[in-house]
Design goal:
By secondary structure, the protein is α/β, with parallel strands linked by helices. It has 4 helices and 6 strands. 35% of the residues lie in helices and 30% in strands. The strands form 2 sheets. Strands 2-4-5-6 form a 4-stranded mixed sheet, covered by helices on one side.
Amino acid sequence: MQAMTRRQTMTAIILVAGLAACQTPPPKPQYPEITFYNLEPIHLDVARIEVVDDYVPPMRAPNVEQEFPVPIYSVARRWAHDRLRAVGTTGIARVVIKDASAIESDLRKTPGLKGAFTTDQATRYTARVQMAVEVRDDHGFKQASAEASATRSNTLPEDATLNQRDQLFFDMTEALMRSVDQELEKNIRTYMARFLR
C-alpha cells in the first residue's frame, strides 16, 4: 500500500510539473531604445533646453500607455535630448509633451456558433503624441513655437499573445515618434527660423 502511495505521489508531481512547463510563458523580448542620435541636431539660439511633461497618464482603463514596453513619453523626452542643441547665451527652448496616450477599446466579435470558429480582431489600440517646442526669453515670454502631433491605430486578434501585443505597442511608439520628429523639424524650420543657428 505504501509503494502505491509513493507511486501515486510521484505521478502527481510529474503531472503537475508537466502542466507547469506547458504554461510557462515565453521569455519577454528585449526592445531596443528608440533614438534620434543618427539625425543631424537642430541648433537653437538659446542658453538651455528643458522638457515639460504636461501629460499625466491616468494609469487606469481605457488608457494602456503605462503597459508599453518602451513608454511614449520617454521617447518624446529622448527626442528633445537627441535632436535639440542649445548654442546661444540667453533664452530657453522648452519642449512640451502635451499628449503621450494610448487607449484600448474592445471590438465586436462574431456572435453564435460562427463566432466559435472565427478569430476576430478583438481589441483596437489608438496611441497619440502631441509635442511643442517653444522659445522663451529670460523673462519667460514666448518668442516662437512649433507643434506636431501624430496618431496611430492598430488592432489585435483575440488569440494574440502578450508578446505580440508588446511588439505592436513598440511598433506604434516608433512610428508615432518618427512621424512627430519629421513634422516638428519641418515646423521648427518654418516658424522658428530666426532662432536656428
